Amino acid sequence: MSKLWGGRFTKETNKLVEEFTASISFDQKLAKEDIAGSLAHVQMLGECGIIPLEDADKIKEGLLEIKTMVDQNEVEFLVEDEDIHMNIEKLLIEKIGPVGGKLHTGRSRNDQVATDMHLYLRTKTTELIKLLEDVQGALLVQAKENIHTLIPGYTHLQRAQPVSFAHHLMAYFWMFERDKERLIDSLKRVNWLPLGAGALAGTTFPIKRERVAELLGFETIYPNSMDAVSDRDFILEFLSIGSIIMTHISRLSEELVIWSSQEFQFVELDDSFCTGSSIMPQKKNPDVPELLRGKTGRTYGNLIGLLTVLKGLPLAYNKDLQEDKEGMFDTVETLEGSLMLLAPMIESMTVNKDIMRKAINNDFSNATDIADYLVRKGLPFREAHEVIGKIVLYSIQQQKFLLDLSFEEYQEFSSLFEEDIYEVLSPEHVVAVRNSFGGTSPEQVEQQIKLAESKLGK
Ligand code: ARG
Predict the structure, then answer these.
(1) Which of 181, 267, 389, 407 might form a disulfide with 259, Cβ 3.0–4.6 angstroms?
(2) CB within 8 A of 162, min separation 6: which ones?
């Protein structure tokens, strides 16, 4: 048997054309979805009397046998058969005879492939939500152990104000929480059924799209057949959410690389997540966070790639659309691999609490607090800011930090200073008094962790 569409042709396809246009090397990943879509379609064809019930049953049996073969890796997919849809249809006809040719009644590969992609992304999106929750769980484990661990908080990567390390980690929890929300929301649109749109204009057969939607668990049916076969917005949406997730992963990875450097030594990544150098025996490299940061690039590329494919495409189906797949698979696999590594890497890292705490002794990150102190004594904030600027400059010249200055020295700058200034300046106090909602005080961080746990259903 040659090409399924061979009737109109007088010549064999050029071999290079065959290879160039085939998608089977990558769309075989859609085999399960393709079979699931066909099973629902043929069930509906039988129920609607479009093909005899016994034919529908034979086709279903054949498809289930092929599914088993696919599961057991027994199918040899052929480039001559171009894509997953024709490979499976041809296998079916080989298995059950010409009756297999009835499967494609009232259907086109255009609505078929779109349906496969919807089914695939629905499964993957649901799995990715779980993986994001694992990362959130790991962040929570570390956060709970570090509510009272202090770390310099930065702006412009300059020491700004001390914060609870748990607070810093929890910032990422909420990024991943929004990512999850975005994925969940996208499922609404992933759950639109294209099948039944035919090639572009609908079909002459009395099909029941609602029945197929019900069998495949879709919530909505595309109301326009031309939109149904040419829409790839749901993939764009997935790729953009994926890019945002990778952006978050990349930012966290960058912090891990910085924190685990010799200069910082705030955390130590577990040996099992690092690699060595082939020449410098002393090295322990943070390859995993580096690669997570690096892999972010390809997910942006996949998004821009598909946006570019779609821009300027006339309705309805065009072969260009076949280019929607490899980037999507790549982003799915990149996200899966990244999230799977991130969770245990966070959970297993050692937090060097003492080094973090010592770092805070050696900076001016409590300067805002003396300003606030003078403000509470009645000085306008602008004036207080000026006074503290001078104190900081003086301290730098004296090679001292704010807690090293004597009471007499403070009095030189303002008579408003009293002995309690030293307590006010202690980093623990500085953190504890930032007790506004969402702030870094232990009380607020504890509340935040409770809220986070409730989001995870804990
Ligand atoms: N392999 C094709 C794709 O991925 C399936 C649809 C082919 N449709 C067509 N009219 N040639 O887009």
Answers:
(1) 267
(2) 150, 151, 152, 153, 360, 365, 366, 427, 430, 431
* CB 83 near ligand 1, within 6 Å: yes
Residue nearest atom 1 in ligand 1 by C-alpha distance: 83
Return the structure tokens found at 363.
Answer: 């900076």
pTM: 0.95
266 lines ligand 1 (CB under 6 A): no
Nearest atom in ligand 1 to 199's CA? 10
Q: Which two tokens stand for residue 295?
A: 């892999």
How many Å apart are CA 137 and CA 191, to the nearest integer? 28
Residue nearest to atom 4 of ligand 1 (CA): 322
- Could you tell me the distance, in angstroms and rounded to a whole number, from the CA of residue 84 to the centre of ligand 1? 10
277 classed as catalytic = yes
pLDDT in tens, the chain (458 residues): 578 888 888 888 899 999 999 999 999 999 999 999 999 999 999 999 999 999 999 999 999 999 999 999 999 999 999 999 999 999 999 999 999 999 999 999 999 999 999 999 999 999 999 999 999 999 999 999 999 999 999 999 999 999 999 999 999 999 999 999 999 999 999 999 999 999 999 999 999 999 999 999 999 999 999 999 999 999 999 999 999 999 999 999 999 999 999 999 999 999 999 888 787 878 889 999 999 999 999 999 999 999 999 999 999 999 999 999 999 999 999 999 999 999 999 999 999 999 999 999 888 988 989 999 999 999 999 999 999 999 999 999 999 999 999 999 999 999 999 999 999 999 999 999 999 999 999 999 999 999 999 999 98
